[in-house]
């Protein structure tokens, strides 16, 4: 038995089609990963809390030189009196770069680079 094969031929793409696909690929490709914000602890023995409250359990501590990576934040939480006399009600969820401990820290005790 003799079978005949046929191949489908595709039309060459026009410049406009190539340009459109290139633009769509750029628009719908995954965004470039931004570098997470970094900072450090401003005091020795800063408690890294389980929740954004001074009464929540401490998961660990942070010290100057440990460094942290910003993981998120929580505004309008428990207000904390800062060593400089100010009061802050913003807590930040951080990853201690040296110990690997993650949790909430009052913004009184961290600074961003």
Descriptive report:
With 113 residues, the chain is mainly beta. It is 12% helix and 34% strand. It contains 1 helix and 9 strands; from the N terminus they run H-E-E-E-E-E-E-E-E-E. A 5-stranded antiparallel sheet has the order 8-7-4-1-9, with no helix packed on it. It has a two-stranded antiparallel ribbon with strand order 2-3. A hairpin with a 5-residue loop joins strand 7 and strand 8. The protein is globular. About 11% of the residues have low confidence.
Helical fraction equals: 10-25%
Q: What does the average pLDDT come to?
A: 83
- How many extended strands? 9
Weakly predicted, low-confidence segments: 18-29
| Number of H/I helices | 1
Distance between the termini: 77 Å
Strand order of the largest sheet: 8-7-4-1-9
Radius of gyration: 26 Å
Series of H and E elements: HEEEEEEEEE
Biggest pleated-sheet summary: 5 strands, antiparallel
Category from helices, strands and their pairing? mainly beta
- Sheet-strand content, in percent, reads 25-35%
Shape: globular
């Amino acid at each position: 038995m003799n079978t005949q094969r046929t191949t489908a031929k595709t039309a060459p793409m026009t410049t406009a089609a190539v340009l459109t696909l290139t633009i769509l690929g750029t628009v719908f490709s995954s965004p470039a990963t931004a570098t997470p914000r970094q900072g450090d602890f401003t005091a020795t023995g800063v408690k890294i809390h389980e929740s954004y409250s001074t009464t929540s359990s401490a998961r660990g501590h942070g010290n100057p030189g440990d460094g942290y990576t910003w993981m998120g934040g929580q505004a309008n939480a428990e207000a904390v009196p800062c060593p400089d006399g100010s009061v802050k009600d913003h807590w930040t969820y951080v990853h201690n770069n040296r110990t690997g401990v993650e949790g909430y820290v009052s913004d009184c005790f961290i600074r961003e680079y």
